[in-house]
Structures are given as C-alpha cells and as structure tokens.
User: Fold these one by one.
Assistant:
Number 1:
Amino acid sequence: MSENEHEPTGTELERSSGVVEALPDLVRAAAGAWVRTAAWGVGKSLSLGVRVARAAVSPDQAVGLAAGMRDYARELLGISDLDERVQQLGGSSASAPHPRAFGRNGSRQLPISLREQGAELLRQSADVTVPDGAHPAYARILSELAPDEGRVLRLLATEGPQPSVDVRSANLIGVGSQLVAQGLNMIGAQAGCRYADRVPAYLNNLFRLGLIWFSHDPVADPQRYQVIEAQPEAMKAIKSAGRAKTAHRSVHLTPFGQDFCDVCLPRDTAEIEALTEP
C-alpha cells in the first residue's frame, strides 16, 4: 500500500455499503425524473443521466446525487423560489409607507403595525413643524364622485340647504300613515344635472361619503315647498295617496362636506375654465 493510500475505517465501510445498497432506489428515482423532465429541458436530463451513470460506480457520486435530486425536483415543480415568496407574503403590508419603514440607505425594513402608525399620527399632531394641508381623504372622495354630484355639492355650497318633501297616506282612523314618496326635491334641476333621474342615487352616495345629511327640519322659506308639490311627480304621488299628507324636510352639507367644497370645488366659472385648460 502506498503512502497516499490508507485502509478504510469501519465507519467509512458502513457508509459506503449503505450508499451502494441505496443505489437501485436512486437509479429508479433518477429514471422517473428523466421522464418528467422531458418537456422541461433536454439539457437538464442529460446532466442528470451523466450523474446517474457516475453514481453507479462511485459511492461519493451517489451521495451527491441525492442532494442534486432534491434541487432538480424543486426546479421542476416551479418552487425553487418558494422560500423567498413565502417571506414576501408574510412580510407584505397593505398599509401606507411609514417614515420608519425604510432605513437610512433606503432599504426596506420590517413593516410596522397599525398601532405604530397611530403613534406616528399622534406625534405629527403634536409637531408644529408639520404642514397642515387638506384632509387626506379628499383625493379619494374626488375619485368616487360623478360629475353631476359635483354640481349638487356646488349648489348646496352656494345656495345653502335644499327643500325636500315626503308624501304619506294617512289612515282612515287618523292614526299613523304610510310612506308613498320620499325625498322629492328640485336639486337636479337647480344644479343643472345631466341625469336628473339619478339624483336619489347621487344623494345616497354623497351621504355615504359623509358630505351631506338629511334633516327632518324644513328650510326657512315655505314657498319653496309649494314649487316641489306642484311638480308632476309630486302631484302624482299626492293623488295616489288619497288622504295625502306632506312632510317638509331638507338636505344640508355636513361641516366636513362644507370644508370639502371650500377646498376642492371652485365656485366661479372662470376659475373652473382656467383650472381645466390643457
């Protein structure tokens, strides 16, 4: 025996024997992978075949083949980047970027919690150096308004609360009543809406956004209700009610809606044209 050669130890012999015994299983697995990867790429298959041939005569090659088979399987199934995707999903956050969400070098740090965002909001409220701009919801509200709804808001902002009428049918015994028509008004005509029949939907959307509210109190001028009751729709409802009774209501801007109009909606036609010029 030469100086560079040494007699294998008992542990090495046991390991080599176990690897040799496992060769049939490894060869069968490699053959199955060969078939499954035919569409995936000839290059990968050829590489795998060469490694199988080497493993048949070399225990060390067989040990390396076992690890290589796992990598091939992960790539074949399209999950080679699975760990990275899981980390991305687990670390994703739908919240807005926080000042501390990025490091000094611009690298992304761990996402912050909603409570941390609330703490940052309160910190900014106490910081007199933070500029006090428009409400952050105004941009989103503008994207959720129909053009006619802008006209309705401008009418309420310039002309004040608008009258509306409910028509009810009184019972014969004089106790209670049934609703026949609700919220009849002249807002569509007064505002110049393109689609006057959509005014009830417009008002519901403006109420949803917190811009208007419906009051049970009437406006100061009672003659404005007479104009509404003389409209064909109101007269039809009154006629169908039989013993009809009307309730005078009104539509108002909320304080939030008033501020929204002051900030976002120009009143003057010249300003509108100047702001919308190309």
Note: The longest strand covers residues 244-253.
Number 2:
Amino acid sequence: MKKLLIVLLITTSGSLFAQSSPENLINDFFVTYEKDAGKAVKDLYATNKWTERIKDGIANIVSSVNGFTESYMGKYYGYELITKKKFSESFVLYSYLVKYDRQPLRFTFKFYKANDKWTLNSFSFDDSFGHEIEEAAKLYYLNLSDK
C-alpha cells in the first residue's frame, strides 16, 4: 500500500509539474486533441477560472473542433510549430499548423501568467492564413538589394 501511495504521489506531482509551462499545456492539448478534440479545448480553457464567463463561446469552439471529423477533414496528421512570440515574461503566443488531408488549420494559443501559474488567455483557429503567406512573398517585402 505504501508503494502504491508513493507512486500515486509521484504521478500526481509529475502531472502538476508537467503543466507548469505553456509548452506543456500545448503538448497536453495535442495529446488529448488526437483522441477527443472537444475535451482538449475544454481542458485548455479550464486552466483559467475567468473563462466561466464565456461558456457560450467555448461551446461554439468545442462544436467546431468536434466537426473536424475524418469524413469532413480527412485524416489528422499532427501539428507543427509556426511561430512563438514572447511579448513579455508573462505573455506568450504560440501558433501551430494543424495538418489534415483536406487542408491545414492554424491554431493560435495565447498564455498569460499573472503571478506564478500559466493560464490560457485565448485560443483561436482559422484556415485563412494562405493570403498572409502570399502577401509576405510580394516584392515590396523582399530585400532585392545586391548587398
């Protein structure tokens, strides 16, 4: 019994420690997302007690991600980091490419640490980032000097 208790305590403290950074929260999100997209979103929002005020918006996001079925989006192949932007020691943004047969999606996570715990500040997704890459490739953004 003592051995079981020790293992349980180590396992519990490990999972608490595992959620001490935005990266770990995102990793947990994607592990759950692969099995149950709606639960992944709910768990992510559960890191922030203030999201109780936006239950309807969260329910809409859950409904949307639950709609990314294999018959609608094709097979899910995982995710890749697009960018990470650190605005300060307490606010960061992560953008990921989420890969499906039909098309890629972009998931954007913003995390905030008011004191000592990272929480989700906002989560969004879209499929309209193609125009951004086209815009970035325009000549007036390119360095065409001979240097």
Note: Residues 1-18 have pLDDT under 50 and may be disordered.
